[in-house]
């Protein structure tokens, strides 16, 4: 997936999360929950999908046959960022309810 597509998806997830938070505070928690389900699912799928395939990026794994430590570190960094995004999205969606 290209960087441009990744940024667009990230923007949509964050925009829906913030909209859910604002709607829950100002208007209707039930509507906010309906809007907030999509970003939670997308962020959760990204996190758990990366977690399930994390061993492929380990040294000697399927995606890292050269045993490069750089690939492993970048994969761990990406996993950490996805976990942070998932936490932020869950906070924004569920704190307003």
What does this structure look like?
By secondary structure, the chain is mainly alpha-helical. The chain contains three helices and no strands. It has helices at 3-26, 29-52, 69-95. α1 (3-26) packs antiparallel against α2 (29-52), α1 packs parallel to α3 and α2 runs antiparallel to α3. The protein is elongated and about 55 Å long. The model has no long low-confidence stretch (mean pLDDT 91).
Distance between the termini: 34 Å
Helix-strand pattern: HHH
Outline: elongated
| Residue share in β-strands | under 5%
The major pleated sheet works out as:
none
Number of strands: 0
Number of helices: 3
What count of structural domains? 1
List segments where confidence is low: pLDDT < 50 over at least 5 consecutive residues. none
**Overall helicity:** over 70%
Rg: 16 Å
Mean pLDDT: 91
Based on secondary structure, the structural category is mainly alpha
What's the SSE blueprint?
Layout: H1 3-26, H2 29-52, H3 69-95
Helix pairs in contact: 1-2, 1-3, 2-3
Fill in the keyword field for this structure.
3 helices, 97 residues, mainly alpha
Give a quick precis of the structure:
The protein is mainly alpha-helical and 97 residues long. It has helices spanning 3-26, 29-52, 69-95.
